[in-house]
Specification:
This protein is an alpha/beta fold and 382 residues long. The chain has 2 domains: 137 residues, Aspartate Aminotransferase, domain 1, CATH 3.90.1150; 240 residues, 3-Layer(aba) Sandwich (Aspartate Aminotransferase, domain 2). It is 40% helix and 16% strand. The chain binds 4'-deoxy-4'-aminopyridoxal-5'-phosphate and glutamine (GLN). The site of glutamine has 5 residues, from loops.
Length: 382
């Protein structure tokens, strides 16, 4: 179908296939190579053994909805009613698609901040929406929101702005001032905000994460999405959630029930257990990822890349221009065979490739010996 033709193969599937073919170190697809907290894994085994193997309730098991509510209240002071304001989804991915299908009319416009996680554009297309993307701009060795461009992208047809902080692929954590400015636009133009906070715990260097839903006047217009994937090293559990005011969550639920009906049962009490009991594990994960970021950034710098600032997430972006290359897409397609390392070209996440021609995203959520091997292989570029 024409609407979905541009989305036939994700960049992650393509790059992971190249990694396999060339036995390359895969710093392309962002997934960790160690397990989550032992207590959480045990809780899932117990759930299966105790017979939690049939359909859970449509909105998700109460135990998980209550744990998500406690977690958001404890960390951010936001009170969500577990009965009507929290929906368990099949990962953040389903939450994003269901929010788009449930809240965006065909022909309405959705503003994305570019580069954007690939599923957003596909979800807008599934809903029959029209995407308007606003490129981030260079700010020192990092990136910032172009607020004038954001305002200019909003038209009378705009329904929603999608925010993602900490940001995949750049690792940018938006400042409170930037989030306030997005909130100003949303309030002034009466827009919904869909905020993807899957990396909410992975903020480095003493920085902090501000959920845009906590800003004045934003609770009632914001759907907040997160997931166990990146918080508890459980990308294969596909257990996420959407939180927001009841009318918005009801619309997301309406779409979700015909996408997957429900998510897998035994993971839900296990993730609830982790939210309640494994906060120290998550802090240790964050600190270990910060060290891994430093290791990979140093290796990339040593290999001759121009390394961008990464303030959170699993990712660091690196510029290939200082190495004498000008096209990240062909660079990334050749790299696995050339030196046995996989990265992802940032222009896979954009509508304005001319701004992003020379940037490559590398994932550092890998064991130290894997990063050390990548560092050795990268020196071959010098
Ligand atoms: N949003 C972002 C920004 C991501 O990087 C990812 C990849 N984990 C997802 C959503 C998907 O999350 P999940 O695996 O929970 O569907
Ligand atoms: N979220 C991960 C990334 O950005 C993996 C996504 C995927 O494989 N769909 O790399």
């Amino acid at each position: 179908m024409k609407r979905l033709r541009p989305f036939a193969h994700t960049i992650f599937a393509e790059m992971t296939a190249l990694a396999t073919t060339h036995d390359a170190v895969n710093l392309g697809q962002g997934f960790p190579d160690t397990d989550g907290p032992a207590g959480m894994l045990e809780a899932a085994r117990k759930a299966i053994a105790s017979g939690l193997n049939q359909y859970p309730p449509g909105p998700g098991m109460p135990v998980l909805r209550q744990a998500v509510a406690r977690d958001r209240a404890a960390r951010f002071g936001t009170e969500y009613d577990p009965g009507s304001e929290i929906l368990v989804t099949v990962g953040a991915t389903e939450a994003v698609s269901a929010a788009m299908l449930g809240l965006v009319e065909p022909g309405s416009e959705v503003v994305l901040i570019e580069p954007y996680y690939d599923s957003y554009a596909a979800a807008v297309a599934l809903a029959g929406g029209i995407r308007k993307s606003v490129p981030l701009v260079a700010d020192g060795d990092g990136f910032a929101l172009d607020l004038d461009a954001l305002r200019a992208a909003v038209t009378p047809a705009t329904r929603m702005i999608v925010v993602n902080s900490p940001h995949n692929p750049t690792g940018t954590v938006f400042t409170d001032a930037e989030l306030e400015a997005v909130a100003d636009v949303a309030r002034e133009r009466d827009l919904l905000v869909l905020t993807d906070e899957v990396y909410e715990h992975l903020v480095f260097d003493g920085g902090h994460h501000t959920p845009i839903a906590t800003l004045p006047g934003m609770f009632e217009r914001t759907v907040t999405v997160s997931s166990a994937a990146k918080t508890f090293n459980a990308t294969g559990w596909k257990t996420g959630w959407a939180c927001g005011p009841a009318p918005l969550i009801d619309a997301v639920r309406t779409a979700k029930q015909f996408m997957s009906f429900v998510g897998a049962a035994p993971f839900q009490p296990a993730v609830a257990y982790a939210l309640d009991n494994e906060q120290q594990w998550v802090l240790d994960l964050r600190d270990s990822l910060q060290r891994k970021r430093d290791t990979l950034a140093a290796a990339l710098r040593h290999a001759g890349f121009g390394v961008k600032k990464s303030q959170g997430t699993y990712f660091v972006c690196a510029d290939i221009a200082p190495l004498g290359f000008d096209d990240a897409d062909s660079f990334c397609r050749a790299l696995p065979e050339r030196i046995g390392v996989v990265g992802v070209p940032v222009d896979a996440f954009v509508d304005h490739p001319e701004h992003w021609k020379t940037l490559v995203r590398f994932a550092f959520c890998k064991q130290d010996d894997v990063l050390a091997e990548a560092a050795t292989r990268l020196t071959a570029l010098r």
